[in-house]
Amino acid sequence: MKKQCSKCKQLLSIKEFGKRRNSRDGLEFWCKSCIAVYNIAYRTAHKEESTARHSAYYATHKKEAAAYRATHKEKAAAYQINYRKTHKMKINARISNWRRTPQGRAAEIRHRIKNPLKIQCHSQLNRALITGAVERQSCINGCSDKAHGHHLNYQRPLVVIWLCRGCHVVWHRKPLNKYFLNRMNKPKINGDVFTPPKGEQS
To answer: What integer is the mean pLDDT of 45-57?
Structure first.
């Protein structure tokens, strides 16, 4: 079955139209592509208004959002990875700008005071990368050649698994750790065979 889009005038499959309760056939008048183009243009022209509306909605629906992520773990993880791939420069700029603010600097100081062993491990790994004692590897999920070293045990500063920025962020969301562990198949990490930590074995 097909329907004509009232915007682009193309005759398309009904699968190309979203649902609309108030319409006679239960479908939108515009196809999904035309609606997507319109939404992008609208958000661009009304950026502050759209941001405020989305923030207000999320603030009143936090529990629903958390419940959705909990029941769609793999989908949520895949979305996060894809978003960070396609918005890398935007994310990096936002983080850099925040770190320059008084709040960002204060958070950095608190982090260093609270996690001295963690900071020490990161410093040792960075020195090892500079001297060549450790070679940087690509992300274990094949996302990127630029990967971060993630420590599973801070008593072993040079034993890490390699994750791209997106995978690294998602990893730290504890309920999603098994998503990665199921895909890793015990890879070798700097000469050691990785064993999932207790409580996280799949």
So the answer is: 90
Q: Residue 176 to residues 28, 53, 61, 74, 197: CA-CA distances in angstroms?
A: 36, 29, 21, 8, 14
Alpha carbons 76 and 55: distance in angstroms, whole number: 19
Q: Which two tokens stand for residue 113?
A: 């005071």
Measure the CA–CA gap between 119 and 115, rounded to whole angstroms. 6
Location of structure tokens 């419940």: 67
Q: What is the pLDDT of residues 85-102, one digit of tens each?
A: 888 888 889 999 999 999
When pLDDT is averaged across residues 3-21 and rounded to a whole number, the result is 92
Cα 191 to Cα 161: distance, rounded to the nearest angstrom: 11
User: What are φ and ψ of residue 10, in 5° steps?
Assistant: -85, 145
Q: Are 136 and 158 in contact (CB under 8 A)?
A: no
Contacts of 178 (CB under 8 A, 6+ apart): 200, 202
pLDDT tens digits, residue range 108-133? 999 999 999 999 999 999 999 999 88
